[in-house]
Amino acid sequence: MFDPISKLVLGLLTGIIFGFLLQKGRAAKFHVIIGQFLLKDWTVVKIMATAVAVGTIGVYALVSMGAATLHIKPALLGGVLLGGLLFGTGLAFFGYCPGTSVAASGEGRRDAMVGVVGMLFGAGMYVALYPALQPIIKGLADWGKITLPQATNLSPWVWIVGVVTVITTGLYTLERLRAGRQSA
Amino acid sequence: MNPLTMKSWSPYVVGALIGVLSWFAFATADKPLGITTAFEYTAALTERAVAPQSARTNEYYSDPERTPKIDWEWMLVVGVFIGAFLSSKLSKDRTSQSVPPLWRWRFGDSTAKRFAGAFLGGALMMFGARLAGGCTSGHGISGALQLAVSSWIFVLLFFASGVATAFLIYGKEGANRV
Question: Do residues B147 and A56 lie in contact, with contact meaning Cβ atoms separated by under 8 Å?
């Protein structure tokens, strides 16, 4: 029922930092998240892409030193495709994603608190319908717990250099375009 | 100025620090940052407590990959609430808003309508996250940085469906109001 207390404290501490950062990044705000999906406010993409670029280097370094292991979610196509579609749709109505809705509740937002209760309801539906959902989740291909380097038979570092380059170039271009539009 | 009392930080600073935080999570707990598994476990523990009969026949509870408990990630979610509370307190960036302005422009003043939209949107979003095995954090940040195939598919797809839905709801006129 419970993890050891040291692990619980560690999780709490990590979460406090995570929530602090989400709030400081303005990601706990309805208009910032909906602004991203309306392609007007690029804050969320900037945060996520930078986190991925920085994170991938360190996490793969830890893995290659044997200090951590990868935790890859299986590519069960039925579940990932249907889940991705429903997730984006629900998110656009709600205006917060799961992590930022908890942060938005911490910021005091009432609609986010109601949505968090809705999220518990959605999780409950998933557990209750779990047996019936299996054919949908596993209905299409199951590629297993596979990474892009494994799927392409390349060293992870080729992909890391590629991803970091694409993200850096993309964000740089985004800033240039926005600066151009503002001065025009 | 004291950064802790500032209302916002550069998204690049925040993103880089979240990246470093995921190193920390992997190094100290061998865990990726994620949110929605804790919601699933909370729901599963509740359902088993309220309806033990139907839980006994639900194969969910015999799946070895699913061990509902109060764990590292559960506490992480509690921490996110506390961290955002502290940050908004320190910067006096708090609000008790129920109906965001853009929503009001589209759907009117009704708090009940906004709460219904938030509840149903949140439920649908979580249902989708559990079907796919993760959310913006678990797939979008942690899965993408681990270069997982499932996560990159999920991210591209939810971004596309989020953009399509947002434009269906708010349209171009809504976009100009952001």
Answer: yes
pLDDT tens-digit map of A119-136: 999 999 999 999 999 999
Q: What is the mean pLDDT of residues B85-102?
A: 96
Nearest by CB to residue A7, choosing from B16, B19, B29, is: B29
User: Residue A184's pLDDT band (boundaries 50, 70, 90)?
Assistant: low
- State the amino acid at position A98 in one-letter form: P
Amino acid sitting at position B155: V
User: Can you tell me the ipTM of this complex?
Assistant: 0.95
**Nearest Cα residue in chain B from A60:** B146
Please answer whether residues B80 and A22 qualify as being in contact, where contact means their C-beta atoms are separated by less than 8 angstroms.
yes
Looking at the whole model, is its pTM more than 0.90? yes
Are B140 and A48 contacting, i.e. CB atoms less than 8 angstroms apart?
Answer: yes
Nearest CA in chain A to B25: A14
Tokens of B37: 């598994």
**A181 interfacial to chain B (CB closer than 8 Å):** no
A163 φ/ψ angles, rounded to the nearest 5 degrees? -65, -45
How far from the centroid of its chain's Cα atoms is residue A176's Cα?
26
Under 8 Å between Cβ of A147 and B153: no
Higher-pLDDT residue of A124, B53? A124
DSSP designation for B138: I
CB contact under 8 A, B97 and A25: no
Dist. CA A87–CA B154, nearest whole Å = 9
Interface of A with B in 5-34 (CB under 8 A): 7-28, 30-31, 34
Q: Which of A39, A97, A130 is closest, CB to CB, to B136?
A: A97
Check residue A116 and give its pLDDT.
98
